[in-house]
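Suppose you are handed only these lines of text.
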Amino acid sequence: MNVNRKVQTLDEFTIQQLRDFPNATGELSHLLRNIGLAAKRVNVEVLKAGLVDILGDAGTINVQGEEVKKLDVYANDQFTGVLRHGIACAGIASEELDDFVAFDDAKSVKSKYVCMFDPLDGSSNIDVNVSIGTIFSVYRRVTEIGTVVTKEDFLQPGNQQVAAGYVVYGSSTMLVYATRRGVNGFTLDPSIGEWTLSHPEIKCPEKGKIYSVNHGNFFQYNENVRKYINICQNKTKGDGGPYTQRYIGSMVSDVHRNLIKGGIFMYPGTTDKPKGKLRLLYECNPFAFIMEVAGGKATNGRERILDVQPTELHQRTPLFIGSKLMMEELETYLAG
Ligand code: AHM
Ligand code: MG
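From them, the structure of the protein bound to AHM can be written out as follows.
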């Protein structure tokens, strides 16, 4: 190990980035710092998830006499809380909440960003000790600074994102975030409780060998998607294959792996659910932004995810996302 290598923390990194923008206010750094703080708190609880029988089930009172919250509710409270009390965020929308929340205190109305998040994605994996994650997306508000934010601030197409990121609570805990300038990954060093730059300037390999899709739904996908899946199964060495199928069922982990190693992730529409399962605003848009900045692509099968004009906070969309060349091959099949 090279002990002389400079270890950069998330705060150092974001502050250094600011130096290139003399007029920057530091609000985005502040917001990212708050997200990092909430993620550390959530991480502590995720690490204890297996002790739920000892520490008490959600909704019960634990041995210390404290009310035990479901982890996804806890995560939602943490992210909402840090953003509400910070100085950079004027309002949030979350998978956990039916409607957006406008922060109406005197400081928050002067903030320029709104944030959307899925506080704990893949929550069906909590009980079985499989990686889960948080996904977030940051926009500049479109309403006037000094007023309370409205729905219009949240219903912006993904191409307006200022930053987006995710946290994987996995074998180690990582925070990855993108701005238009690049994608960078920070691993939590538990010995000092700091996010440490471990994956600078992430680029998604143009070609990959991994395809990720729920095969259980195969016969519910349309013919074009089924054809492409068959192509993935039949790749030979001369053809860039063979491909490997990997599907955890936690989007954050599945897309994170494919972003680093090269691959494609699909959650197509099904006959039962033509719009699929995933949510445009706080699941698909942030990943589409990260993937595009890293050199990959993301579509809903017809158009670029980032160009979709949202009409509802919780709208769903089919998603195809991953390495550039794999996506281009997929698109030839989706075109029919
Ligand atoms: P959630 O937000 O309720 O946790 O659901 C989203 C998750 C994604 O992380 C994952 O890609 C997908 O659901 C898996 O769904 P399925 O089990 O239908 O394949
Ligand atoms: Mg989710």
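What can we learn from it? Residues 27-47 form the longest helix (21 residues). Residues 95, 118, 121, 283 surround magnesium ion (ligand 2) (CB under 6 Å).
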